[in-house]
């Protein structure tokens, strides 16, 4: 299957709301997509389950059926958010981490952009975190042993040339398409000289790969140690344009960047592979506000936009993004995380009116 | 050797300025300590070398002599900062990471406190990061192999019950001594259920250890996933009091916290073990401003204060801290990182006048 959009009569979208506010924001994203009419092929939604609640009901966090349907019957998907047990539970393992691996969604792309007060004005924060999505400590190879002084636990952090190269290629491609064309490689090779050394060198070598042919000559390359990157994100976010990072650093850095623009409730992402893409709001399942109807749907709607853009439906994606920007700019209909008093439904309706 | 202060005629302090601005700020800390007069035993300073420059000169980043002198002839030490090579260099390995391990300085304690406008007023940020200092990915067990798709690098992340327990004890002790008595455990056990699971459970079990006897009953315990902790540090730092974290998360979180109070140039730390303590400013070697005479000496002076406090010299420590606070509050003599125009020497002199 390819991502080519030419022959599509309909767009089959898997919906996996999963836990907590995922069940409130994914339906909102669905409604926003439906409002796009003929700008995209007719959407067909497929409801799928995964998550902590699924686990407590069935003993499996990510049913094989969900993976199979996504793989064989869907063009793309939207994932909500998962809750985690507050203690280790035998047999439970994060379904989002597993899904990324099962579908080889190797790039987690997280644009963090503040909405400027006026249309056309420069955003104060405007960056993209490109997070490697399949390895690092997320390979979850862990062992527990008994040592002379008690228990000892070990986890493996895997960094491969293969995965670093493809995430590097994605990052260069994204950087090259932006006005500033600036790429910052995040690592900690002053401590992890072998693993992060491999990541850094492999990403750096992308412009010299066969077939690249000077395509990325305009991209400037910088590096930041992960600790320093978090510090500088807070102090001078304008130095960043595209940031590329191994999995765990990317996880942390995207949350740090999110804090700059007001709320995690605004930050979208896609998990992208060569033949599938899955939108996912960066926020969690937020058990504290679950069921109250006040979850911010904007990150999910923006994730739908990112997903459509990745599939080539630029016009539909633009309409969603513009509508979201207008609602934020007007500032009248916002959820409590943005200091508003509106509900999920009210925000969705404000967006639908703008579409 | 014990940390008991009773019989000390003199205080033997190893000085390892290492690289970059370390060579400018450690002498300032020395001068501040010398100004304390009879509040502390007569200080005897021992000049020692380590770092990238030492490596380029001698081929060794941490000479055995430096370790031996610290171990056998010093009561405590001050470490500056190290530069890292911009590419992997065979044989080079961070001397600060090695020193922490060699001297078993298992707790890296990093208080991040904003100076209130008025004396006695509540600080807007007032927290302590307690970072495990000997294991996690910092064990630096890395391998490079050839796989079917190119190179593969693996690093081991080690978390032991032993190290988690002693850092947990340190964190509970520090939390218990503070007015809020609130401890937040930082982890990522939704992904690393075995390693971070062990860290979390072991820290949680500290109050039930034999001999603790209800001592920590007043301490409230919370948890935050590391990504979320960074986000919340920016959004609502007031929710944190003492944070305890495995090594790498602690590294990142202390930089995030530092960003809240204006400059890394203000943040001190100690590397503490059961029989040795080493002060260390959290900032790096700052090659961009090296040799310009404008490095902020306040983090190093505060690190000296923390070190003295840890050794039991409360009066000397208080005098240093109060002097630093006064200089910051007055706002007249500050280095460029704090938007001032003063030099390292001018700031030092302002501090010396207040001591
Ligand atoms: C839920 C968790 C496993 C996940 C991650 O760490 O990747 C989340 O924090 C994210 O950023 O999508
Ligand atoms: C220089 C580096 C090895 C060190 C670390 O990561 O511990 C530094 O960032 C710190 O925080 O002291």
TrEMBL record, chains A, B:
Residues 12-351 form the Isopropylmalate dehydrogenase-like domain. InterPro entries: IsoCit/isopropylmalate_DH_CS (IPR019818), IsoPropMal-DH-like_dom (IPR024084). The keyword Repeat does not apply. It holds the Pfam family Iso_dh. GO terms for molecular function: homoisocitrate dehydrogenase activity; isocitrate dehydrogenase (NAD+) activity; magnesium ion binding; NAD binding. SMART domains: Iso_dh. It comes from the Eukaryota. One of its GO terms (biological process) is tricarboxylic acid cycle. One of its GO terms (cellular component) is mitochondrion. The keyword Magnesium applies. Keywords: Magnesium. Belongs to the isocitrate and isopropylmalate dehydrogenases family. This is Mitochondrial NAD-homo-isocitrate dehydrogenase LysB. It comes from Crucibulum laeve.
């Amino acid at each position: 299957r390819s991502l080519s959009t030419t022959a599509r009569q309909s767009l089959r979208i898997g919906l996996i709301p999963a836990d907590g506010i995922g069940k409130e924001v994914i339906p909102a994203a669905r409604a926003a997509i439906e409002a796009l009419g003929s700008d995209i092929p007719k959407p067909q939604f497929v409801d799928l389950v995964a998550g902590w609640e699924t686990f407590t009901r069935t003993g499996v966090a990510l049913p094989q059926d969900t993976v199979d349907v996504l793989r064989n019957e869907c063009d793309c998907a939207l994932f909500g958010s998962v809750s985690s047990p507050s203690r280790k539970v035998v047999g439970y393992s994060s379904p989002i981490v597993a899904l990324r691996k099962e579908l080889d969604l190797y790039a987690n792309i997280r644009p963090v952009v503040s909405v400027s007060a006026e249309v056309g004005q420069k955003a104060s924060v405007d960056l993209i975190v490109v997070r490697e999505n399949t390895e690092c400590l997320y390979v979850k190879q862990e062992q527990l042993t008994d040592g002379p002084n008690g228990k000892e636990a070990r986890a493996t952090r895997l960094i491969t040339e293969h995965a670093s190269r493809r995430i590097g290629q994605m990052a260069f491609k994204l950087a090259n398409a932006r006005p500033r064309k600036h790429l910052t490689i995040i690592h900690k090779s002053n401590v992890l000289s072998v693993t992060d050394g491999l990541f850094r060198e492999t990403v750096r070598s992308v412009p010299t790969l066969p077939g690249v042919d000077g395509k990325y000559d305009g991209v400037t390359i910088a590096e930041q140690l992960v600790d320093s990157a978090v510090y500088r994100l807070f102090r001078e976010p304008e130095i960043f344009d595209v940031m590329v990072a191994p999995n765990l650093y990317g996880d942390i850095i995207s949350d740090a960047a999110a804090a700059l623009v007001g709320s995690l409730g605004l930050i979208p992402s896609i998990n992208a592979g060569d033949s599938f893409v899955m939108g996912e709001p960066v926020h969690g399942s937020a058990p504290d506000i679950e069921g109250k109807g006040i979850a911010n749907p904007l990150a999910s709607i923006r994730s739908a936009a990112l997903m459509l853009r990745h599939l080539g439906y630029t016009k539909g994606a633009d309409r969603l993004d513009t509508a979201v920007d207008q609602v934020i700019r007007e500032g009248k209909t916002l959820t409590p995380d943005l200091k508003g008093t509106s509900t999920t439904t009210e925000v969705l309706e404000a967006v639908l009116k703008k579409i």
